[in-house]
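=== Structural record ===
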Amino acid sequence: MGDSVPDGNLASVLKNVGDSVVVDEIVAQIETDKVTIDVRSSVAGRIEQILARQGDTVTPGTKVAIVAIGEPRAASPPGPTAFTTPSPRAPAAASPAVTVAPPPPKPGPVKVDAAAAASPKADDLSSPKRAAIPQLQGGERRVPMTRLRKRVATRLKDSQNTFALLTTFNELDMGNLMELRSQHKDTFLEKHGVKLGFMSGFVKAAVSALKQFPAVNAVIDGDDIIYRDYIDISIAVGTKKGLVVPVLRGVDGMNFAQIEKMINMLGKKANDGSITIDDMAGGTFTISNGGVYGSLISTPIINPPQSAILGMHSIVKRPMVVGKDIIARPMMYVALTYDHRLIDGREAVLFLRAVKDNVEDPRRLLLDI
């Protein structure tokens, strides 16, 4: 757990009393507001006692279980040892073995609707009755929100409540960028060991636009405006456990290959659960690509404490007027949601237009125009 995450919930215990463990084997998982952290055994032996249960709040150094050192069937093991929750700065990772049944949860943490429990009148039309059991009649079931999901919900609602959110839209022709990728993708992969995607083009286009319109890269702090002379772009990644936003740091000094390598590395860490809190800290601007899920158009929500977010969408061939002809072109809608307290409509529209110009003619990025 990082310094900014003082505690977490024990999400699952993957071992039972009597089970054998080997060195560095994952025995439990802790869910924080941002990531899932593995608790690993530092010794080989047998689980002698489990000291914490699913749902418990734990802090760095909390004892989770006791392991009898040695082979599971050893006649006289050297003695038990306890493994604890990771201390600050420990690497965070998520295990795919989440289907292993954990010990039954304590009855204490179960939340019951007090009004419903106190009186049968709680099931009137103005206040529907909320059953305390997980399985309800009519195909309903109650599942506790994960800490990550609660954190995402809180941050996004705070964004709506704090910022003067406004979204501007545009459409861009992806033809030139697609042609560039098609012509050079094999050579790019051979030389750099990573595939050439569209995201690096959008990142470079956004960096160029952010330099032209520094207010989009700034943030309000009380009665002041903080202008950043650096550009760290957050990339929104949807995972099975929720939304995570890793950060490409110093992206204004990266080339296409460096950006693609960093995106590939952070994307893998996000999906396999090994992403750390440090990987997601900071960021001055966010790019979200709903197009990978087929989204045609949307209004993205700002990731606090940033002031704007660029939304990419799916590429669809549409009839467009080119000169005097109507031609089917690969088009994408793009959206910029921004904090209208800081960024004027003129700046937002021109910023999005700059992104459009850079993507439609990638040569502008090479010439820095």
